Amino acid sequence: MRGHEKIQTERLLLRPLRGADEAAWVVGLSDFEVAKWLAAPPFPYTPADFCSFLATAEPGSHWAIEDATGVCGGISLAPHLGYWLTPRAQGRGYATEAARAVLAAHFARPEAGALKSGYFEGNTASARVLEKLGFSEISRGPEPSRPLGRVLAHVTQGLTREAWAAANPFTLTTRRLVLDPVTGADAVAIRRIVTDPRVGRMLFVFSPTLTEAEALGVTRSWRWTGTPPFRLALRRGEEFVGAIGLKSLVDPEIYYFLAPELHGQGLMSEVLPCFIDAITARFGLARLTAKVFTDNPASAHLLAQNGFRPGPTSQITSPARSTPTPVCVFIRP
Predict the structure, then answer these.
(1) Which of 67, 104, 131, 214, by CA, is between 20 and 30 Å from 158?
(2) Any idea which of 1-10, 127-136, 308-317, 318-327 has the lowest mean pLDDT?
């Protein structure tokens, strides 16, 4: 399965390679200071080499890297992570930024597996990039360098989903809150909030008698793995004050709750648009849903403010409600 064909980062656009990139590719990969660290490209690199590569560079697996002044490199997941940058673009964090975005798109797919990458010994810049991304060493051994025409000492590295999630947590910041992955240490606060009737009655899964052990199990099911399902903690300073999350890519329903003592302060009005923008960009979502009990007008108003429209209604019995209660599904767009 292919990934995102276009990926926008803070400073870069990653997009499919096209014929107009020939000059930039030939100049970049004919620079010996670039080519000497690469394994596969011919050297010097010719227009014919570019045409041959372009014919096999599948969108969603190969990207040109553009910054504000134009094409400055390339990155690929076919099948391993590989990248290069022109000298003017090196030392600016571009490789980490581009690779992190490509890997986020890869691990957003629930079926995505571990990846490999590597570097020739002496390429300390690439070694630092891979370390920041969460890669770890698998093996060392000789590998052929086509540009140099000889075998060099090489370090092969691997990246599992678990290592990726640990090294690259999903974090967001609003004016008053920080959103980051839920941990086991949040279990006590989760239990306190969701067993409060002012919150629990408006949710769909929590028992009023939820135990701390059960809350700890909840934190495990919400952990960040790079793909839904997950929930992020809402933190005011070090304090856990709520959560927001996404069910799945197939059924992109969002969930959220906030500590009752903070209701009416506009905190969720900060959080929801920030979260929507982030998950839409990260996971390529075109549609979101959210379920709301019809006696929860504050949540319905919040969703309406953020582009959701009321859809079908049904009756739901939740652990905190003993009788079926009307629920409306809100849909965006």
Answers:
(1) 67
(2) 1-10
Q: What is the pTM of this model?
A: 0.90
Q: Are residues 15 and 160 in the same domain?
A: yes
Short-list 44, 46, 21, 22, CA closest to 33: 44
Task: Give the amino acid at 169.
Answer: P
Cα of 70 vs its chain's centroid, Å: 25
What pLDDT sits at residue 78?
A: 87
Regarding whether 194 and 139 lie in a shared domain, the answer is no
Can you tell me the distance from the alpha carbon of 143 to that of 124, in angstroms, rounded to the nearest whole number?
A: 17
The domain in which residue 33 lies consists of: 7-166
CB 79 within 8 A of CB 3: no
Q: What would the two tokens of residue 305 be? A: 């403010």
Q: Which residues contact 191 (CB under 8 A, 6 or more apart)?
A: 210, 211, 212, 214, 215
- Measure the CA–CA gap between 327 and 325, rounded to whole angstroms: 6
Shared domain for 100 and 152, answered yes or no, is: yes
- Kindly indicate the confidence band of residue 2, based on its pLDDT and cuts at 50, 70 and 90: low
Say if residue 173 is in the same domain as residue 312.
Answer: yes
